[in-house]
Write a structure and sequence with these properties.
CATH superfamily of one domain: FAD/NAD(P)-binding domain
Strand content: 15-25%
Shape: globular
Radius of gyration: 23 Å
Distance between the termini: 37 Å
Structural class: alpha/beta
Low-confidence stretches: 90-94, 226-243, 517-536
Strand order of the largest sheet: 9-8-17-18-19-16-20
């Protein structure tokens, strides 16, 4: 191996790039991670044997390459719910079997991908609503017929008299769902997530996340559902939000990336933790080296490189590059982000709303969208339902309460003990728990979790043009591209960067086309609610 690629960040994008370089080239990757754990926002937090998934990561993709890549790392466990133990996928109308490596599964029973059932609902007015919303008798009854009729009338009005020009996210959503439905199920939650009014968010965010969607698709799905084969697991031709099974690492999403990091090191690459890039040397349009600080001891060192693959936030990348055009640096410095924290609560039991729930009150959902305006809580994860192995004691209920905030604000700055108490009180306030049943709790903060599409984002194209002009620099990943990508999108961007390196081209158009092309665009077949609410 004669050339070196420095990769900044050991999340899905960085580790995918590292392993692909080792599989496909003679370039040696050196992965530099500022934190003490790999995985980025897809890491798994272990708190006293209870594991937390920050955001809830379904392992599903419309990309065959991604699905096969994941299975090359962790084999799929046989599904005990099926009589023959098979696991099926439906791709564009054809059904195929997932490969099950029984020998590997027997040797390493914890190193597997589980097939998990998917259920998520909306909590609104202290009642559960189907997610995505269905025009069922139950929905009409819970909304009330008059209210449901007003939603229908508002939708018809929006279709007949659409807003023009469609400049903001509010314009985008009202044009597609009507003002009443927008204000009922989208507005409050979206503003809770992003911290700004929908009138200040670009319509481009909606176009990227929920493009091509219609109420008609949700209705058509509901009508087709009884006729679908129940054993299908990852139906490409069906809206992503309506997929009823997904793959999930037994020990949480971080298990996938810990395995990848181990493979990278075994194959001759390096993954160095607690190493922060504090400087970048460039010569003309080429990156020559990075300066790295060891966060444990403070010592700095220089690492020469032939390629730089960056997943660090664009703001930090531009600070390190110090472009000649100072206005580009100002644009990058002003790029907005939304930060995130998760409060883990261990409970003996929960309160049951309606008829849904186990004997201990635990609902069957993977996650619940909290649409209640009187609490700050945005989403509730029930980790037991992602994988039973995430919970140290199966008699307990392990919950993740997700809050969207800004780094340094009152919520972010609250002491951990006070945050645990605050979250407990909110969960009790909306009727899901009795405070006396909470046994333990912890807090995890994730800065810059969500790149935002307002403010100086309108000029991101100028920054991108500058970065594209640096021939051996490849920005990938959610923060690296300032794009609200899912982990499979980040992996595909990393693959595109490796393609450029292997093929010897500086044309980075393929990187930016991920999650932008209609033939892959997740939003093209996904419901609005999922896209607005999938804040991880």
């Amino acid at each position: 191996m004669h050339k070196v690629a420095v990769i900044v960040g050991a999340g899905p994008a960085g580790l995918t790039a590292a392993l692909e370089l080792l599989r496909r080239s003679q370039v040696r990757p050196i992965v530099l991670e500022a934190e003490d754990q790999v995985g980025g926002i897809s890491k798994t937090i272990n708190y006293r044997g209870n594991r937390m998934d920050l955001g809830g990561h379904r392992f599903f993709s419309k990309s065959d390459w991604v699905m096969n890549w994941w299975q090359s790392i962790l084999p799929v466990a046989a599904d005990p719910q099926l009589p023959d133990g098979s696991v099926r996928l439906a791709y564009h109308g054809r059904t195929s079997e997932l490969a099950i490596d029984a020998r590997s599964q027997a040797a390493h029973p914890d190193k597997v991908l589980l097939v998990r059932p998917r259920l998520s609902r909306i909590l609104y007015r202290r009642r559960y609503f189907d997610y995505p919303l269905k025009l069922s008798w139950t929905t009409l009854q819970r909304l009330g017929p008059a209210y449901a009729a007003s939603i229908g009338a508002s939708y018809v009005k929006a279709r007949l008299l659409p807003r023009s020009p469609e400049a903001t996210l509010e314009d985008f959503l009202v044009n597609r769902f009507g003002d009443r439905l927008y204000r009922t199920f989208f507005k409050d939650y979206t503003e809770k997530v992003w911290g700004v009014p929908c009138t200040e968010i670009s319509a481009e965010w909606g176009a990227q996340r929920i493009k091509g969607l219609s109420i008609g698709k949700a209705l058509a799905h509901a009508l087709r559902k009884p006729f679908r084969v129940s054993r299908d697991r990852a139906q490409k031709g069906i809206e992503t939000s309506l997929i009823e099974r997904f793959l999930y690492p037994k020990l949480g999403p971080g298990q996938m990336w810990e395995e990848v990091a181990s493979l990278v090191c075994t194959a001759g690459g390096e993954v160095q933790l607690r190493q922060r890039v504090i400087g970048i040397e460039r010569e003309g349009t080429a990156i020559r080296a990075v300066t790295v600080r060891d966060e444990r001891g403070g010592a700095a060192r220089r690492i020469a490189c032939d390629y730089l693959i960056s997943t660090m936030p664009v703001r930090e990348l531009m600070e390190r590059l110090q472009p000649e055009r100072t206005d580009l640096l100002e644009i990058a410095r002003a790029l907005p982000y939304r930060d995130f924290l998760s409060v883990g609560l261990l409970a003996e039991r929960m309160r049951t709303i309606g008829r849904s729930g186990a004997e201990n009150g635990m609902p069957p959902d993977n996650w619940i969208y909290v649409q209640e305006p009187d609490v700050k809580l945005g989403r509730l994860q029930i980790f037991n339902n992602w994988s039973p192995a995430l919970v140290a004691d199966p008699r307990r209920i392990w919950l993740g309460l997700e809050y969207f905030c800004a780094e340094g604000d009152a919520l972010w700055s609250m002491a951990d003990g006070a945050l645990v108490d605050f979250a407990t009180r909110e969960l009790a306030q909306i009727g899901l728990i009795d405070r006396r049943n909470v046994l333990d709790g912890t807090v995890v903060r994730a800065p810059k979790a969500y790149p935002a599409y307002f403010g100086s984002y309108s000029r991101i194209g100028e920054v991108r043009k500058y970065l594209d002009g640096l021939t051996n620099l490849f920005p990938v990943g959610r923060n690296g591209m300032h794009r609200y990508n899912n982990q499979d999108h980040s992996m595909l961007a990393a693959k595109a960067a490796v393609d450029c390196i292997v093929e010897g081209t500086a044309d980075k158009a393929a990187l930016w086309s991920v999650n932008a092309e209609d033939d892959y665009h997740e939003s093209a077949e996904r419901s609005a609610g999922d896209r607005l609410r999938s804040a991880a």
